[in-house]
Amino acid sequence: MAETLGNENPTGYDEDFLERVEEDYLCEICHLPLGDPLQAKCGHRFCKGCLEEHFRRLENDGQPSTCPVDRDVLDRDKPDVFADKAVERQILFFAVKCPCDDCQWTGELRNQRDHIGTCLKYPVTCPNSCGLSIPRELMLSHTRDECPHTMISCPYVMMGCETKKKVQLTLIDQQEDEDERENVIKLINPERSSAHFARPKEKENLACGFPKFITHEKLNSRKYLLNDSLLIQVEIQEPCK
């Protein structure tokens, strides 16, 4: 076996298959179920990406293209390597699980991408570009109540104001080393009718009743409170005119 076997960037299917995949369907390089399978004239099968990376390494070393298993020379200008469509179809019918631990979906590999596109447990990137990935089922509450980049309508929208206001509270961690600080950032709704401005119903609610801004336990776990003082930074857009 050639020393070139192995790939730092495997291109096979790293999925959770319901049943063990037989060796005939595994890439000879990355040892995962074949992704875009190719078959060499000698009968060995590889992921397209894995074999192309193998050929690039040989070319960079000034060596001819060979099979990484038996080192047979492969003429890439001739059909010494060809797409194995029959094997590809079989692999796409193998049953897999959803990549999300909390999701119970199982189905054929060919349908997994469609499932991921609607899976409520699958993490998706916040549309407000806040940098967080949130399970799809929690994204609505995140963008509505938590995301610091959410734009909130002015409370005078009923009077014709079209300005969007963004109000953000940042509780400053007063650690001396700025790199060690863990500031708490929360978004608030400026409408006076909002529950965010109601009297706290639980002792855990601080910051004018904003729910779950910070617990007493966390408040005392770091230097948010220093010399009986809290530092809270408020960011707000220009008031509407």
Question: Which helices and strands occur, and which strands form pairs?
Answer:
Elements: E1 37-40, E2 45-47, H1 48-60, E3 81-83, H2 85-92, E4 95-97, E5 106-108, H3 109-116, E6 123-125, E7 133-135, H4 139-146, E8 152-153, E9 164-165, E10 167-171, E11 184-188, H5 216-219, E12 225-226, E13 229-230, E14 232-236
Antiparallel strand pairs: 1-2, 1-3, 4-5, 6-7, 8-9, 10-11, 10-14, 12-13
Domain TRAF-type: 115-161
Pfam family, one: MATH_2
Main location: cytoplasm
Describe the structure.
The structure is a single chain. This protein has helices at 48-60, 85-92, 109-116, 139-146, 216-219, and strands at residues 37-40, 45-47, 81-83, 95-97, 106-108, 123-125, 133-135, 152-153, 164-165, 167-171, 184-188, 225-226, 229-230, 232-236. It is α+β, with helices and mostly antiparallel strands and 241 residues long. The chain has three domains: 23-112, 2-Layer Sandwich (Herpes Virus-1); 120-150, no CATH class; 151-237, Sandwich (Apoptosis, Tumor Necrosis Factor Receptor Associated Protein 2, Chain A). Strand 4 and strand 5 form a beta hairpin. The chain is elongated. Mean pLDDT is 81; it is low at 204-209.
Task: Output the structural class.
Answer: alpha+beta
Query: How far is the N terminus from the C terminus?
Result: 76 Å
Mean pLDDT: 81
Q: Main β-sheet: number of strands, strand sense, barrel status?
A: 3 strands, antiparallel
